[in-house]
Amino acid sequence: MSGTAVTVLTPTYNRKATLPRLYNSLLEQSSFDFQWLIVDDGSSDGTEEYIRGLQSEKFRIDYYWKSNGGKHTALNFSHPYITGEIVVIVDSDDYLLPDAIQTIASEWTMFRNCNDICGMSYFRGFADGTHLSLEAKEDFYIDDDISYRVNNPRIKGDRCEVVRTDLFRAYPFPEYAGEKFISEDILWNRLAYRYKTVYRNKVLYICEYLEGGLSASGRKLRLQSGNGMATATKTYLSSRVRLARRVKATWLFICYSKCAGKKMRYIVVQSGQPILTLFNYPFGWILYQYWKNKYLE
Q1: How far is CA 48 from each of CA 11, 12, 44, rounded to the nearest angstrom?
Q2: Distance CA 228, CA 118 (A)
Q3: According to the model, what pLDDT value does residue 282 have?
Q4: 293 burial class (0-12, 13-18, 19+ CB within 10 angstroms)?
Q5: In the chain, is it the N or the C terminus that has fewer CB atoms within a 10 Å radius of its CB?
């Protein structure tokens, strides 16, 4: 099969039980001009046997296994195997609505030759028809992610992000030895400083997690990935980011940097916002002590 318009990229780890729902949603698509690329991040639950047993004459299925390193390493690992012009990341416990691929592929044709556009952003929603974000003031609204989302406190919740493959490859997630997590917003923030996104008031992606929830294990994983989380948080430390959001990011940058064993002088200098960081250092240190005692000891 030749190159495809869209790559549905699914990083997975021990999600054999939920993958059939995603697979079935792909079988129900109104367009099959896509590649389903699964990167298995070291599963031990029979995921490989399940995927290799799948057959589809409708669309291309590519499966690759790697040793466990965290979702961001699986996303980086996918780069050589992507055949689509654009990529949509679909987690293994979520699924797409039947018109998702057709909508993405057809609407992208309007922007594929716009060098300042990095991709498109649709709603994630729930099975009951509600969605996680706030509708843009107009459909096909174009702006950068910092201006539109980061600087608007009313806009919350994940979205279904579609990104150009060339840029997805050009901005790999930083990897640090022994760390298994980094926030995906590092990618969207980095792109936002140079490119714009097309925002659509349309649900294409269904998920079933509780928005705003962060389990103790999730927090612990973040604290154990101090270098990566500090690097991701630093993308908010820019004069383009509203002050309240920047102050919050400063606290987090200090906290995660402390988790990585960094000293105060290093943290202040590396923040890129030395005065703001120095002023907020006591608050970040208190947050670090609180989370360390609660989640790491």
Answers
A1: 13, 10, 8
A2: 23
A3: 98
A4: exposed
A5: C
Give me the residue label for tokens 């995927």. Answer: 51
Residue 115: HSE in the Cβ half-sphere, 13 Å Cα cutoff = 0
Please name every residue paired with 203 in a beta bridge, in sequence order, or none if there are none. 123
| Statement: residue 210 has pLDDT above 80 | no
Which tokens is 18 given? 């939920």
Global pTM value: 0.94
Half-sphere exposure of 171 (CA within 13 A, CB side): 19
